[in-house]
């Protein structure tokens, strides 16, 4: 049986072809990998020409850092990574979760743990990742406090960080009820009752969390909506503002490092 002739690959569109070489540049013969690389560069250039995102990227990533920066300064990035891990694993769990107090919530969690491929692994990452995120955000706030990074002109960033700390605790508290087993049920009752002992707003806060005077189907749905929709949206918005202020104002040097006077200033004083 005669073999069919091998047809050449179709040429790249003109918009994705490599630009002509500049005067004086050596013309090199590009292979498939080089063509693919050049096509990717062309696409990126096309997007950047219409959005000017390269300037934003340079402003965000390339900036001066103070002398003495050490591993303590990575606690904020580690907390952000923990939040992203929680978001990804939470979306996966939400695909199978049913906020039904009549056995649906518990059975959906059991199904994820026992039947879904890598379900136990993802659920374990989400469960223990919440504790990791709480620990990291406390360590980050402690580093900022002891290094004096909350002082002028970074007071607003400190306030945003404090709000993010509260929202992280709210996420951990509302997520604890979602498996709706005996431990989660009674622990949440204790937590809501503790909130009810607060002055002025305490009783109203407890009624809001319960969705009424008693625990029921409304309570689980309310905790689920707070955990999945309200608090994550607030956290994403505040993290954006937090990162903007960190980039705009920069980071502070460790308190044990003193700024050195420039030699020309010393000569002027003399």
Tell me what you see in this structure:
- With 270 residues, this protein is mostly helical.
- The chain has helices at 32-51, 53-61, 75-94, 104-114, 119-146, 155-176, 182-196, 202-210, 217-249, 263-269.
Descriptive keywords:
270 residues, 0% strand, flat, 10 helices, mainly alpha, Cytochrome Bc1 Complex, Chain C
Rounded mean pLDDT is: 87
**Largest sheet, described in full?**
none
What name does the CATH topology of the domain at 78-249 carry?
Cytochrome Bc1 Complex, Chain C
Helix content estimate:
55-70%
Shape: flat
Fourth-level CATH superfamily of the domain at 78-249: Cytochrome Bc1 Complex, Chain C
Terminal Cα separation, in Å? 97 Å
CATH class designation of the domain at 78-249: Mainly Alpha
User: How many runs of DSSP E, i.e. beta strands?
Assistant: 0
Please give the structural blueprint.
Layout: H1 32-51, H2 53-61, H3 75-94, H4 104-114, H5 119-146, H6 155-176, H7 182-196, H8 202-210, H9 217-249, H10 263-269
Quick recap of the structure?
The protein has 270 residues and is mostly helical.
């Amino acid at each position: 049986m005669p073999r069919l002739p091998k047809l050449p690959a179709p040429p790249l569109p003109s918009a994705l072809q490599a630009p002509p070489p500049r005067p004086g540049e050596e013309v090199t013969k590009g292979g498939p990998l080089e063509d693919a690389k050049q096509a990717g560069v062309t696409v990126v250039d096309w997007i950047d020409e219409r959005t000017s995102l390269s300037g934003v990227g340079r402003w965000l990533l390339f900036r001066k850092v103070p002398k003495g920066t050490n591993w303590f300064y990575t606690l904020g990035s580690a907390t952000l990574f923990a939040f992203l891990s929680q978001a990804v694993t939470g979306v996966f769990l939400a695909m199978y979760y049913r906020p039904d107090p009549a056995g649906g919530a518990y059975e959906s969690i059991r199904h994820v743990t026992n039947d879904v491929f890598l379900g136990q692994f993802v659920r374990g990452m989400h469960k223990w990742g919440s504790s990791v995120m709480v620990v990291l955000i406390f360590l980050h706030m402690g580093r900022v406090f002891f290094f004096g990074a909350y002082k002028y002109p970074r007071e607003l960033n400190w306030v945003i960080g404090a709000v993010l700390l509260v929202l992280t605790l709210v996420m951990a508290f509302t997520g604890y009820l979602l498996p709706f087993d005996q431990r989660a049920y009674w622990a949440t009752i204790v937590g809501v009752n503790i909130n009810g002992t607060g002055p002025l707003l305490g009783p109203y806060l407890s009624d809001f969390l319960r969705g009424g005077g008693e625990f029921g189907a409304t309570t689980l749905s309310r905790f689920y909506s707070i955990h999945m929709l309200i608090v994550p949206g607030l956290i994403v918005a505040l993290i954006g503002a937090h990162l903007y202020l960190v980039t705009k104002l920069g980071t502070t040097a460790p308190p044990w490092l003193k700024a050195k006077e420039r030699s020309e200033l010393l000569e002027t004083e003399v």
